[in-house]
Amino acid sequence: MRTPSKLNGRLLAALLATLACGQAAAAAPAPAARRVLDPPLAGAAMTVVDGRLWVASRGGGLIGFERGARSMRFDLGQGLPSAVVQELASLPDGRLAAGTQAGLVLLDPRNGASKAIAPPGMDGHDMTADLVLASSRGSSVLFQLTAREPDGAEGQAGASLWHWDGERVQAWDPGLGGALVATAGTVDRGDGCFHVAGMRVDGAAQQPWYARQCGAQLRSWRLAEGAPAATVGIAALARAPDGRSTALVMVTQPSADPASRRHVLMTLDEDGRLHPHCSQASFREPVTGLLHSGPELIVARAGAGVHALGCGEPRPLSDDARVSNATALIRDARLGLLVATDAAVWQLGADGAPLAMTPAPGREIPIDALPMEAKASGDLVLLSSPGTGPLELARTPSGWRVVRQWRAGVDLPSAVYGPAAYAGPDQVLAVQLSQGLLRLRQGQAQAVPLDAGALPLDVAVTPGGIWIAAGSTPFGGAAGLHYLGNDGLARFVALPDRQAQPSGRLLAWPDGRIWAGTRMGIIEADAKGAARRISADRVEALFRNSTRNIIGAVGASVQRWDGERMAPVLFAIEPKPARALGHPVDLVIDDAGRWVILFSGGQVILLDAQLRHVATLDERAGIAPSSRRLLYVPGSREVLIGSAREGVFSLSWP
């Protein structure tokens, strides 16, 4: 009998009361996940090293392009702890400093090596690295770390600034007091100086600031005098070619309405005095790039394209719609002006014509697509993206490809989309979370009539009709299960009380019954309206392998149906995971009886058919930290893993 080292009974209970004694399975190579297609490029930052264009992709890792073709990639399991790369800078020796949602990573394209850069004692902490600036002289990097909330949302309360001198990491303090949040920065390529700006938070007060560090010399200014009223941030900055001034884009928001936000162009002189830019320019659109070109500024704006700006009106550098949604902007000595968008990177010629520097966008998977259901043949898979809507993949000899897609705001109403299910050879049911249910056919979307006030969370199809899990409303609507029979019969099965809110996952049986996971356990209902309680523990996900008739559930614990009740699944995890697992959020069971369990911390536990722990997989094995849902592909050994921010991955277990 073996138990995990340094785990006492209290910690075992905290790990869902399932990590009890067990016998470890024989050691075997752990499988690794691989990416299923590419998400949209969504270029967040760029740099050029030795003629290779590197693009930081929010969800697709770090990609290198040469002559318009992808030549190298750093991704999950390939040097990166997160595929969400939002900042990028290059050192003089050719190495790359990448700011990811799991920290700062130093990468060497020459040999593929990677190294995490973290302050002492902060290794392995859930921190996002942004505002990454690399000096053009030596190995010196300035970066910011921000603590992330457990659900993955970023916050600024825990932001901190750090400097890596090539050997060690130390706190970077410009001596302004208060809590500092850096929101913009640049490096003067001539002298290697860091230029950083942001907001200083002191209680309820916020004040813009600016700092300049050249070698050991550091100067900083509080930008109170001359700053626009209601300044809430600094979006971008650029140094003038003569080094005597800095252009700042200061963000103002005079009211709680986001529509009141403006991006105001200002000039900062060498003594830290602010003045309005000679153009008096301000923009409603977010400024995503700013640099000097001779006497003019070049300004990139999301949704408005790229403009040159002197002391008059902005002058468009291109009228091509492909560069209208600019996400990043750089100028390279050899390649000239490069504009990143949400789909590609473009080189702007003198006439404004864009030349693609990356492959033309094809049929891609949204970064937040979650797998929902597979056809019995395993050749078609239905997914749903909260922001985009449902889509369908087909298996081909060369892998998966997108064959159908319904897009929110184009083919469908704008909404947040939840689960989806097949409802016939050519029909799909799509849940608009807490709004309604749509029946989709190719080129057609039809609302499914529901009771007034019904807030759908999940949908499942049985031979006799459709089941819908609905949550309670703030005005007294009861949580429960709606049944819409093929014969026109409609029923509502109320859950025992308001604490029995559906978790949002339904399990349909061939005889028309339904099992619903709730906060108070599993509720079984049938088309006649009869209901009974199957278990008492909170359940987030249910799964049944129809080939072997094995049923499992996860939530407050890991459980298995023994024919009469849900019994706990006990197993030991050895060795101890590198970081906390969190709680189980999903599971699948393959045709060999093996269990794949996804935990909220973005890790996957593999159990063999005897329910013994085989392996713990994390980002080193290609498991996205933001993983949310699993889908077993029938007739295969493949599990699809959907994530909130990093795309869809496939895990094949031999």
UniProtKB/TrEMBL annotation:
The keyword Signal applies. PROSITE patterns: PROKAR_LIPOPROTEIN. The keyword Signal applies. InterPro entries: WD40/YVTN_repeat-like_dom_sf. The lineage of its organism: Bacteria, Pseudomonadati, Pseudomonadota, Betaproteobacteria, Burkholderiales. Residues 1-26 form the signal peptide. Keywords: Signal. It comes from the Bacteria. This is Uncharacterized protein.
